[in-house]
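Field: sequence (string)
Field: structure_tokens (string)

Example rows 1 and 2, in order.
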Amino acid sequence: MPVTIRKCTIEDIETIQQIGRQTYFETFVAHNTEENMNDYLQKAFADSKLREELENPDSEFYVAEQDGKVAAYLKINQLDAQSEPMDSDYLEIERIYVLIEFQKLGLGKLLYDRALERAMSLRKSKIWLGVWENNHNALTFYSKIGFERIGQHSFFMGDDEQIDYILVKSVKEEVF
């Protein structure tokens, strides 16, 4: 079961949109109203928004394919593309989205490793990300690979205020 990871281009917009909407829905539908969920999915994964993100030189998208099937994607940001104001020596992992049928196969770790490689090549000292306080699978994963909680911020799903934990990890030379 070979896995390939490739950098996305604007031609991948529909793939990113489909994975993003499906993964987000499956992960969070039980915790949100249908109205809030539909509104968020339409805005967050709109063609115009994804096009802008893909064309931003400070954001990068990567797709993981397993046996020729698109299974997951990664979005990283630096500098002004970060979703929260952070120093220039930080790299943000904004999304690691893995389709349910491909979860627990190590794809999240492979995409994290790609983000770590990019952080090192860009000479960043820290990687950070935000994780919903009730996303226990993600919190467990990030804790296992050395992230620590340094704060939190509000995230609004429609009219519902939710809390994301801000997690950070120092970047150092690591063996893959």
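Row 2 begins here:
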Amino acid sequence: MKELEEKTLSTELVYQGKILNLRVDQIRLPNGKQASREVVEFSQAVAVVALKDNKNVLLVTQYRYPVGEVLIEIPAGKMDGEESPEQCAMRELQEETGYTAKHLEKITEFYTTPGFSTELMHVFFATELLEGEQNPDEDEFVKVTEVPYAEAIEMINNGKIKDGKTIAGLLSVKSKINN
């Protein structure tokens, strides 16, 4: 819908970090007025719903500094360099849980917070899992647990799972698990 588009007039890079950049754009609104937009530039990322043969899903628990809480999540991470979403999904699954998957299927993709961030999240469904050695990043401290899929859905409903990518991922594979 062309009539809703905003036109960029100028861009100023305010911050350039290791994992994200912040820019402020001056834009022209559809009604002709000007406004500014703050944009967090972030790489694409992946999230993996890993289902074991016994219908348990692998979850990782870790402290998330920005929100000051320990969160329960599905394995996930940002894509590095020229890495494909599939390669990243396999790498993150192995690093965070120690598991690899014989079968990996892309389920969906979504913008995590399109009001201010460019992050695009690719969600995968991993099955036929093989256990191995966990290999987290040096600044990553995660605890791996497995819970029955139905219990994970209940954890969403009772507020124990609050992470958006985890909620989206677990709900997006529901039809595949119930079949």
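free_text_note (row 2): Helices lie at 85-97, 149-157, 164-172, 174-177.
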